[in-house]
Amino acid sequence: MAIKMLLDKDKIQKINFFENLTNSKVKDFLDEEKIIVVVEQGELGKALGRKAKNIKMVEKMFRKRLKIVEFSEDPLTFVKNFIYPFNAEDVKLNNNIIEITIQDRKTKGLLIGRNGRNLNELNRFVHEYYNLNVKII
Known about the structure:
This protein has helices at 9-22, 44-48, 53-62, 75-83, 105-112, 117-130, and strands spanning 26-31, 35-39, 66-70, 90-94, 97-101, 133-136. It is an alpha/beta fold. Strand 4 (90-94) and strand 5 (97-101) form a beta hairpin.
């Protein structure tokens, strides 16, 4: 499925900068409170750089936090990649809803984020790529 990404001049420049710096292929790019970059499958190592130097450089350049996520054709794997470093007890697909089971209240709160921001970001990508929704249990 082809994904349509709205591009403006600023976004194109940031994507080009990131791709040239990391030699990785960007699949999607979200620049809001923090920058979220989805890279093609197998490109995560290049995107991070040795000792995460690329993350530090991009964060310093754009003065925002950066999250790099590796794409996967499998929606459950993509969700696991997106919520990393947090571990879910279970991630399963149930009636077009990906259910993430978390027992620890602190981890659940961090995954949802203030005003549901983190969950909304995850939902945006999952709905765009797989036409599914995400629910944290």
